[in-house]
Amino acid sequence: MKEKQMPKYLQLKQEILSWLHTGRLKPNDQMPSENEIAEQFQMSRQTVRQTFGELEQEGWLYRMQGKGTFVSTPQTQKSRDVQTIGILTTYISDYIFPHIVRGAESALRERGYRLLLSSTDNDKGKEKESLDMMMSQPLSGLIIEPTKSAEGNPNLSYYLSLDYLHIPYLMINERYPEMNCPSLVVDDEEGGFKAAQHLIELGHRRIAGFFKTDDLQGINRLKGFIRAHHHYQIPLLPELVIHYLTEEKRQKPYESAITMLGQADERPTAFVCYNDEIAIHLLEAVRTTSLQVPQDISLVGFDDSSLATATEVKLTTLSHPKTEMGADAAKILIDMIQNKRANGSEMGKVYKPELIVRESTIQVSLS
Amino acid sequence: MKEKQMPKYLQLKQEILSWLHTGRLKPNDQMPSENEIAEQFQMSRQTVRQTFGELEQEGWLYRMQGKGTFVSTPQTQKSRDVQTIGILTTYISDYIFPHIVRGAESALRERGYRLLLSSTDNDKGKEKESLDMMMSQPLSGLIIEPTKSAEGNPNLSYYLSLDYLHIPYLMINERYPEMNCPSLVVDDEEGGFKAAQHLIELGHRRIAGFFKTDDLQGINRLKGFIRAHHHYQIPLLPELVIHYLTEEKRQKPYESAITMLGQADERPTAFVCYNDEIAIHLLEAVRTTSLQVPQDISLVGFDDSSLATATEVKLTTLSHPKTEMGADAAKILIDMIQNKRANGSEMGKVYKPELIVRESTIQVSLS
DNA sequence: CTACCGTATATGTACATACAAGTTGAGCAA
DNA sequence: TTGCTCAACTTGTATGTACATATACGGTAG
């Protein structure tokens, strides 16, 4: 009797599970009563109860006092094959993130994955919290848009624990060389270059730049902006380069622009803006003076957001993959999950931004 | 002895859980043996086993045959109490939904819940799919923004299964009287009324309305628009009321507006638009003629989105709670979960939209 | 027909006992 | 000291009983 190795209550469990799997018992069927089973299998009712107790815990059965024991409905039992993927983003509602999330969501849904969403509000503490909550239940993969990237990677050690748990992850909008994961980024340096190049080719020589410098995105755009000046051998005037922090975005660029526009003799003829939001903001600033866009000031934004075409003067801007990036992230992550390639920084992608010329930039009058 | 209502094995469970929470027992501490507990609490060893069994199932304890019973390490135990809540929305990236999601997400995260997000793209089939995937693992609650509401509730039977599973849910932006759940809605009829009222009080008499009529939101706004005309005894000209479907939103309102503006003698003096997006669109339409906003045409939008202030002429519009609504939905849902009130349509909320007067509406010249 | 009351039967709680099986450490023998 | 046995613990399995409590159903009084 080799089967004796398995305790009776487990043998009974196997037997009942086979009834369920073979369809001998269907959802909502009533089980034989505890006493019936006990008699049939020549065991005591308490042992049957032990078996039923485990099967109830695992969701196969449910019991109703006075009525009997029943088989659970399928959705409660076979919950196994849907996997979950998390997205950790900085600001859910701002700007272009909804488009990224949308791209990822639809790609995931098509492939039968669920999406967990959490935002960090660019707060390291919240980032840790969010990671904790996400990993509280089985997670198949994670898409991360990191927090405050220009200051390094605060939760690095935390992300490394993902490696330990063999949870594949990738990063969007940012790349950390020290982390061995794919990253999907826009070549912001190229974007900054193209923005400045476009204006220079239109004859502009005094170009102001407004860049948020507490994330790598802003710093890279600024780098490209500077490189274009060097490349075309245009002197870059320090007083025309404004950098600001996230907290200052409502005031500093606006006020700096007003100040610049007040100096009639050394006034810039074009603005390159960190993104469309700031561009719209500076468009306002220009309007408060007697100057006009694009006649007096040409304006270039970034990201090709919905704001860019909402204005009367449609913004010239640089494209951002948005939805495509989200969808790509989802696809690559699923590929990593299915092929068990938990690392693979070679799977990343770099998107080249395209210049979209609209109405906010014109040839400068050669006087 | 009122406490006698609770079975002994549950009383013991509470007691032991309190030991864990107060730190009297720390992770990896050894528990007293089953016999010791049995003697201390004057109960049989079997009863203690029943308690220990549940606590082990729930991850608080682990047992080693021959050695004893021990307290689990934190990561193993508290993985239990993170619950998941789903949001089912029509379009993730459009317009105001990101703000709703953001409000809900931050309220949920504060309270230790995770957020599952899924969008339906206003497709009944996808709605069913999304529901399936969401419920494939334990779900504590669901926030639903229903699909195509003006045509009835296609997946009604599906939602009723939520009742059966005792999953609390609520609806936002829409109310179905036949469903016994709370709903958070904006009083769109009131909004439509206020928009028209504002223009009427500014002296406008020929007011055109553009309404999307394949959801209740649009129909209610239209209702309010009509009611205002009746209330002020202004004749409502049928040719000035345009209704369109979601698929037509890019062409029909725009073209209708152009046509209207072409008729010099019977030209309307104001537009009420279904939302800010259409308002911006019609602002474009006006610009293509030689007319101006607000001098020739006053314009009222809906929802107070970011688009409303992106334009040169800031839009007069009606407020929408957005973030607040998302946060409220999350709070109410958590309340329902914690108080086991699976039904409770009385917990809903109706938001009164406020008129936000900006630059796109002016007093009509009394000629 | 309705309201009420048993009865039968189901699960829920509680206790007692017995033995199996794994762990530990004391104590003894080589 | 080393290696062994064995007693004394632990948890695991199994069975027995008893009573509480919820449900369904049939019969009876009104």
Structure, explained:
The structure is a homodimer of 367-residue chains. The first copy, chain A, is of the alpha/beta class and 367 residues long. In chain A, 39% of the residues lie in helices and 16% in strands. Chain A has helices at residues 8-22, 34-40, 45-57, 74-77, 97-110, 124-134, 156-164, 188-201, 216-231, 252-262, 276-288, 323-338, and strands spanning 61-64, 68-71, 83-89, 113-119, 141-144, 169-172, 183-186, 207-212, 241-244, 270-273, 298-300, 317-318, 349-351, 355-356. In chain A, strands 4-3-5-6-7-13 form a six-stranded parallel sheet. In chain A, strands 9-8-10-11 form a four-stranded parallel sheet, with helices on both faces. Chain A has a two-stranded antiparallel sheet with strand order 1-2. In chain A, helix 1 (8-22) crosses helix 3, helix 2 packs across helix 3 (45-57) and helix 8 (188-201) packs parallel to helix 9. Chain A is elongated, with a radius of gyration of 30 Å. The N and C termini of chain A lie far apart (104 Å). The mean pLDDT of chain A is 84. At the A-B interface, helix 5, strand 4, helix 6 and helix 11 of A face helix 5, strand 4, helix 6 and helix 11 of B.
Helix/strand structural class of chain A: alpha/beta
**Which percent bin holds the helix content of chain A?**
25-40%
Cα(first) to Cα(last) distance of chain A is 104 Å
The largest β sheet of chain A comes out as:
6 strands, parallel
| Spatial order of strands in the largest sheet of chain A | 4-3-5-6-7-13
Return residue spans of chain A where pLDDT drops below 50 for at least 5 consecutive residues. Answer: none
So what's the overall shape of chain A? elongated
